[in-house]
């Protein structure tokens, strides 16, 4: 159990870099995600082909894994759009609502009893976000996009946990990337009608930033998430990911000097989010010990 939780927190630490990279890379959010998924799919295919680990699946299996990948793709598009419309701190703090949306969606999707305890822990996060967004009203668009992003990730995590039980992690990641890439390619013309995407190719420092994002923050992170979700409940994983803003905000303070925009209310909000993570982690470990 300790190893599973260590892997979970390692994945959260890696995820903390994604918001910063999204700000550093100059591409539009949809094009950024397209390149991220295309490169990840190509690298995963090459890796599995060399190791002769490519599994054969029925078309329905591929569609199922690809559908999960489409949820991840849409989450990434809204997540980076939120960051580009506001800043890293706003985008990643909105991600903390994942625990709240999971508490709402999981009982409906998995058809089990609603947990008052999980909802209570989520309220700490909601209160924290409320306090955080008292400090500035300039970022309403970024906040709205971030809220949609967190709801999409909650759906992805629940679907990923259900589907991931039936497939090998590395092959599932490949077909998730392929499914998301195909779906996004079909959506980009419609997206461009409402939001002009501008430049289609990376330039300059976009290349090393994108490479780090693909290898470490996509392939490495997604493999860790798939492994963790097979051992730890989706709600616990999502609520623990509320720590992602802490890592991202610390990084953005040094890189973008975003500390100049933060105040006491913001710090109290972050503290409440951390408390919600600590309470849920302690509760889950205690529950498992009693059950054992």
Features:
mainly alpha, 292 residues, 12 helices, 79% helix
How are the SSEs ordered, and which strands pair?
Layout: H1 2-24, H2 29-50, H3 59-85, H4 88-94, H5 98-110, H6 116-132, H7 140-164, H8 169-194, H9 206-229, H10 234-240, H11 244-256, H12 264-291
Helix pairs in contact: 1-4, 1-9, 1-11, 2-3, 2-8, 2-9, 3-4, 3-7, 3-8, 4-7, 4-11, 5-6, 5-7, 5-10, 6-12, 7-10
Can you write the helix and strand succession as a string? HHHHHHHHHHHH
Provide the low-confidence segments as ranges: none
Q: Tell me the overall shape.
A: globular
Largest sheet: none
Q: What percent of the residues sit in helical stretches (DSSP H or I)?
A: over 70%
Number of domains: 1
Number of helices: 12
- The overall pLDDT, averaged over residues, is 82
Strand content: under 5%
How big is the Rg? 18 Å
Q: Give the oligomeric state of the chains in this entry, treating copies of one chain as homo and distinct chains as hetero.
A: single chain
